[in-house]
Design brief:
Length: about 230
């Protein structure tokens, strides 16, 4: 697929992961300003494990705030809570989980997937109908590929496949790099919430980084592709 024949890709957007949600009160206080300050396509809610009734109550509290801002609310796992909590979908880890849970999510809700360690797994996820594939998140031991390896995987996917790809960024610099490589969305989380200036300033910086990466990319394509 040549850059000459392909239409320019849309500008990448942010995908915001929450801290682990126990009591959602403080998060509810911060989310409206955050979602107003930057173009956030979706919010990934990470629920602290507890009884289902309590987790559903937390999702129900968060969903209207996120959806009113025009973003989708996805749960990190917990597919069984999606419909009951009013969420828009779920993020799954691994091909087996995608295969098991796809029937309960599709066609009405979003099914995204990460934990794709090989290119074959990534292609299988796309063939199965995943709404997006995520590259670069830490594994169960907290290990992840190098930023360069993640960018290469994003570039490969963006050049060849239709479903959106998401880059898991652990810094503003990685957000820039992954957007430049062709990510449709950039997932940001822990470094946003840990920023000493507050999450709003960090999120605005992340958005500026991905916009600059997109603006700098030749003809709306990835920088990596332009070098090949």
């Amino acid at each position: 697929m040549s850059n000459n024949s392909a239409p320019a890709r849309p500008a990448p957007r942010l995908y915001l992961a929450t801290p682990l949600v126990d009591d959602p009160v403080s998060l509810l206080g911060e989310l409206p300003a955050l979602l107003a300050a930057a173009d956030v396509a979706a919010v990934l809610v990470r629920l602290k494990e507890t009884d289902q009734r309590t987790m559903i109550t937390r999702v129900k509290a968060l969903a209207p705030v996120v959806q009113k801002a025009g973003a989708a609310l996805l749960l990190d796992g917990h597919v069984e809570l999606v419909a009951r909590g009013g969420a828009d979908g779920a993020h799954l880890t691994g091909i087996a989980a995608l295969e098991d849970e796809m029937p309960s999510l599709k066609p009405d809700r979003i099914a995204g997937v990460g934990g794709l360690t090989t290119r074959h797994d990534s292609m299988s996820a796309g063939e199965m109908g995943a709404d997006y594939v995520l590259f670069g998140e830490p594994d169960a031991e907290g290990q992840r590929p190098s930023a360069q390896a993640i960018a290469e995987r994003l570039d490969w996917w963006a050049e060849l496949f239709e479903p959106p790809c998401v880059g898991f960024a652990t810094s503003t610099a990685e957000a820039f790099e992954f957007a430049a490589a062709g990510a449709d969305f950039v997932l940001v989380g822990d470094f946003i919430w840990a920023d000493p200036r507050g999450p709003k300033a960090a999120l605005v910086d992340a958005e500026a980084a991905i916009k600059k990466a997109y603006a700098d990319a030749p003809a709306g394509g990835s920088m990596a592709s332009s070098r090949s």
